């Protein structure tokens, strides 16, 4: 996405808010852009930075051809600072560096832009440091915070930013794109809900591991429905061997979540939204009868809690054991 | 682009420029060195975004030909490899060539290096300076001013503006001031600036120390240009640029007391060694407190006391004491720093009471001033 016009196709509201504030010359000193992966957070940050520095802007649009625009694209512009998580979190030292940067004048111009990607990963110390310049913005300094997980942003930070909510991408549209690329309709529906990134989607589709993971999770749901007592064992016999890495474990829980959501949809007769199970499959109705709607909702909450535990570095095997035991109980 | 150059000439320039390049930088392009060939010479540029150094190699100087076969152009090369390659080249003749795909070929004797460069357009643009807002001063004098003030900048990041040296120019008087809010060092000199004036130009302490190291002791002069966000020090072959600190430097002139109650005239060397001895027992965590009291017209008593370690008292005969009797405590570190920075034989210290700041100056001039806050002791 190189222009606000292109952005408007997928994020009409966000694009409008920003272009209006540019037109009226009322750009806020801090933005918090929140939205799921692939919704265009970086594109917005880059566009805004380009607009501020561009030498030949065309209305609200940056030219994308001048030296400034090119260097912002390559992250080489000395007055545009990108703060990315160092490892899992954004550390205090990175903020200290930024703080120092702010006591200095700009390198080429008097304008400065800092873009904090994954702002939810700010450590508490780092977050408190950033508060200081959100509170006392120096002239012509703009902060753009990006996050996928808007709930983890400190309320003190949120209250000082103009919040821009990005719409989730339309999975239906993405699904069509995937089908055009030659993916099976059933796979496309599932993968479109798991990711917004087309390359990642195609990769998942070709991945043997993913097919197996999917099968294992369907089995696990079946076991939970039919042989509750075996479920605990199947964690050790099947789950542990297959889901080794953090990313895989998260994906596994997502699959489980989608599976139970499907069953809930089945109850509610919203079969069009089902992604993992076939609405007309015999198995689906067999599984669905085993769980009441209340039970399904409780299970979904347990899975969300398990995802959160996993994020907070609880041992993955323990997370799964606890989840299964709680579903049983 | 293309040029042929002597290895030793290139190497000394590269070494100058390397001082500005840091391997840890957030902007990828700054890990490189920019090499620009112009009709009349070669310009090397290095930067860590705080400071930038440009070194200029003229094609011809003093009837010597330094650079030959110049085809203009520019390129950025990674600063980790380029200097080492130049240092270790087998012969003194270096051929340098870059094509439009940013491939660089360096030839010397039978050795040939092919390096991948980066587009020079990605490199930060240094400000273009205009000659009408510049002034000139001798390098030696600038270095002296830096030495006498820069030690007093604040090391604490709580007030970032105090981590720099404030420069102002008014009525052809150039002033450097540094303070960390416990002490203040200030120096003034007359310059020929044709009525040019500026104030609130604050150079980061780190940059100004780097400048002091970069400038070599010579009889030459340095031209100083102030732009909106950078300051440029220009010598014959070297341009040193520093970013400035953003913010308003506090008004310091009001801090300097104008009435005097006690004046001490002393020999700097004696005073330094006495206070230095007393500070042996002063403790860092208690601000290195040393006490001074006057007795009579010519004697000072300097003492320090740390209950856990012991105490020391020394009498010092000074040139003269005028005014009221005085007992005062101060940080020996600050006073020693100040006395060393003044660097004259005789000093004059003006006190305005035990709880008021005091001023150390050379006996015979007013241009340099070191102001120190006393320490309250009970």
Automatic annotation (TrEMBL), chain A:
<keyword id="KW-0808">Transferase</keyword>
<keyword id="KW-0548">Nucleotidyltransferase</keyword>
<dbReference type="Pfam" id="PF13177">
    <property type="entry name" value="DNA_pol3_delta2"/>
</dbReference>
<dbReference type="InterPro" id="IPR027417">
    <property type="entry name" value="P-loop_NTPase"/>
</dbReference>
<dbReference type="GO" id="GO:0003887">
    <property type="term" value="F:DNA-directed DNA polymerase activity"/>
</dbReference>
<dbReference type="InterPro" id="IPR004622">
    <property type="entry name" value="DNA_pol_HolB"/>
</dbReference>
<protein>
    <submittedName>
        <fullName>DNA polymerase III subunit delta</fullName>
        <ecNumber>2.7.7.7</ecNumber>
    </submittedName>
</protein>
<dbReference type="InterPro" id="IPR050238">
    <property type="entry name" value="DNA_Rep/Repair_Clamp_Loader"/>
</dbReference>
UniProtKB/TrEMBL annotation, chain B:
<keyword id="KW-0963">Cytoplasm</keyword>
<keyword id="KW-0548">Nucleotidyltransferase</keyword>
<comment type="similarity">
    <text>Belongs to the beta sliding clamp family.</text>
</comment>
<comment type="subunit">
    <text>Forms a ring-shaped head-to-tail homodimer around DNA.</text>
</comment>
<keyword id="KW-0235">DNA replication</keyword>
<comment type="function">
    <text>Confers DNA tethering and processivity to DNA polymerases and other proteins. Acts as a clamp, forming a ring around DNA (a reaction catalyzed by the clamp-loading complex) which diffuses in an ATP-independent manner freely and bidirectionally along dsDNA. Initially characterized for its ability to contact the catalytic subunit of DNA polymerase III (Pol III), a complex, multichain enzyme responsible for most of the replicative synthesis in bacteria; Pol III exhibits 3'-5' exonuclease proofreading activity.</text>
</comment>
<dbReference type="Pfam" id="PF02767">
    <property type="entry name" value="DNA_pol3_beta_2"/>
</dbReference>
<keyword id="KW-0238">DNA-binding</keyword>
<dbReference type="InterPro" id="IPR022634">
    <property type="entry name" value="DNA_polIII_beta_N"/>
</dbReference>
<protein>
    <recommendedName>
        <fullName>Beta sliding clamp</fullName>
    </recommendedName>
</protein>
<dbReference type="Pfam" id="PF02768">
    <property type="entry name" value="DNA_pol3_beta_3"/>
</dbReference>
<feature type="domain" description="DNA polymerase III beta sliding clamp C-terminal">
    <location>
        <begin position="254"/>
        <end position="376"/>
    </location>
</feature>
<dbReference type="GO" id="GO:0003887">
    <property type="term" value="F:DNA-directed DNA polymerase activity"/>
</dbReference>
<dbReference type="InterPro" id="IPR001001">
    <property type="entry name" value="DNA_polIII_beta"/>
</dbReference>
<dbReference type="InterPro" id="IPR046938">
    <property type="entry name" value="DNA_clamp_sf"/>
</dbReference>
<dbReference type="Pfam" id="PF00712">
    <property type="entry name" value="DNA_pol3_beta"/>
</dbReference>
<keyword id="KW-0808">Transferase</keyword>
<feature type="domain" description="DNA polymerase III beta sliding clamp central">
    <location>
        <begin position="138"/>
        <end position="251"/>
    </location>
</feature>
<feature type="domain" description="DNA polymerase III beta sliding clamp N-terminal">
    <location>
        <begin position="1"/>
        <end position="127"/>
    </location>
</feature>
<dbReference type="InterPro" id="IPR022635">
    <property type="entry name" value="DNA_polIII_beta_C"/>
</dbReference>
<dbReference type="InterPro" id="IPR022637">
    <property type="entry name" value="DNA_polIII_beta_cen"/>
</dbReference>
<keyword id="KW-0239">DNA-directed DNA polymerase</keyword>
């Amino acid at each position: 996405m190189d222009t606000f016009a292109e952005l408007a196709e997928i994020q009409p509201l966000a694009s409008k808010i920003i272009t209006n504030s540019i037109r009226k010359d009322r750009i806020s000193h801090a933005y918090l852009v929140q939205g799921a992966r692939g919704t265009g957070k970086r594109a917005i940050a880059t566009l805004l930075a380009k607009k501020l520095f561009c030498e030949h802007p065309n209305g609200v649009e940056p030219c994308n051809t001048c030296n400034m625009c090119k260097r912002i694209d390559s992250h080489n512009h000395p007055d545009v600072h990108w703060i990315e998580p160092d490892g899992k979190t954004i550390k205090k030292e990175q903020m200290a560096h930024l703080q120092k940067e702010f006591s200095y004048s700009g390198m080429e111009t008097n304008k400065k832009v800092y873009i904090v990607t994954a702002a939810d990963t700010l450590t508490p110390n780092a977050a408190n440091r950033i508060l200081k310049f959100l509170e006392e913005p120096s002239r012509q300094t703009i902060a753009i915070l990006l996050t996928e997980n808007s709930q983890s942003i400190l309320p003190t930070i949120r209250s000082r930013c103009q919040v821009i909510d990005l719409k989730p991408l339309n999975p239906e549209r993405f699904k069509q794109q995937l089908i055009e690329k030659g993916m099976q309709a059933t796979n496309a529906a599932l993968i479109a809900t798991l990711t917004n990134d087309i390359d990642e989607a195609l990769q998942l589709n070709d991945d043997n591991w993913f097919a197996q993971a999917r099968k294992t999770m369907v089995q696990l749901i079946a076991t939970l429905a039919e042989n509750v007592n075996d479920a605990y064992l199947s964690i050790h016999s099947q789950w542990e061997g297959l889901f080794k890495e953090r990313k895989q474990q998260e994906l596994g829980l997502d699959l489980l979540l989608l599976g139970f959501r499907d069953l809930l949809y089945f109850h509610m007769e919203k079969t069009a939204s089902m992604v993992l199970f076939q609405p007309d499959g015999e198995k689906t109705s067999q599984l669905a009868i085993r769980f009441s709607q209340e039970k399904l909702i409780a299970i979904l909450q347990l899975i969300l809690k398990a995802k959160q535990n996993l994020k907070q570095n609880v041992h993955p095997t323990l997370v799964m054991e606890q989840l299964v035991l709680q579903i049983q109980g | 682009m293309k040029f042929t150059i002597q290895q030793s000439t290139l190497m000394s320039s590269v070494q100058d420029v390397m001082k500005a390049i840091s391997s840890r930088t957030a902007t990828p392009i700054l890990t490189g060195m920019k090499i620009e060939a112009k009709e009349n010479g070669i310009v090397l540029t290095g930067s860590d975004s705080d400071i930038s150094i440009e070194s200029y190699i003229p094609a011809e100087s003093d009837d010597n030909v330094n650079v030959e076969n110049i085809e203009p152009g520019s390129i950025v090369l990674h600063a980790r490899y380029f200097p080492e390659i130049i240092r270790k080249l087998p012969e003194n003749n270096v051929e340098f060539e870059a094509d439009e795909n940013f491939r660089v070929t360096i030839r010397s004797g039978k050795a040939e290096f092919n390096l991948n460069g980066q587009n020079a357009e990605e490199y930060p643009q240094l400000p273009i300076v205009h000659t009408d807002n510049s002034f000139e001063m001798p390098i030696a004098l600038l270095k002296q001013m830096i030495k006498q003030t820069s030690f007093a900048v604040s090391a604490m990041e709580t007030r970032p503006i105090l981590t720099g040296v404030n420069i102002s120019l008014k009525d052809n008087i150039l002033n450097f001031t540094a303070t960390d809010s416990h002490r203040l060092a200030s120096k003034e000199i007359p310059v020929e600036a044709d009525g040019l004036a500026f104030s609130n130009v604050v150079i980061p302490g780190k940059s100004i120390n780097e400048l002091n190291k970069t400038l070599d002791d010579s009889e030459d002069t340095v031209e100083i240009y102030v732009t909106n966000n950078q300051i440029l020090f220009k010598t014959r072959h070297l341009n040193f640029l520093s970013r400035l600190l953003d913010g308003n430097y506090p008004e310091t002139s009001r801090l300097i007391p104008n009435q005097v109650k006690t004046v001490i005239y002393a020999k700097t060397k004696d005073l330094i060694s006495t206070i230095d001895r007393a500070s042996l027992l002063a403790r860092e965590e208690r601000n290195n407190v040393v006490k001074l009291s006057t007795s009579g017209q010519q004697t000072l008593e300097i003492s320090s006391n740390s209950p856990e370690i012991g105490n020391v008292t020394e009498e010092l005969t000074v040139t003269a004491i005028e005014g009221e009797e005085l007992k005062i405590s101060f940080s020996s570190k600050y006073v020693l720093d100040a006395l060393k920075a003044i660097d004259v034989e005789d000093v004059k210290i003006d006190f305005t009471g035990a709880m008021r700041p005091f001023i150390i100056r050379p006996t015979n001039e007013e241009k340099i001033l070191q102001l120190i806050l006393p320490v309250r002791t009970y």
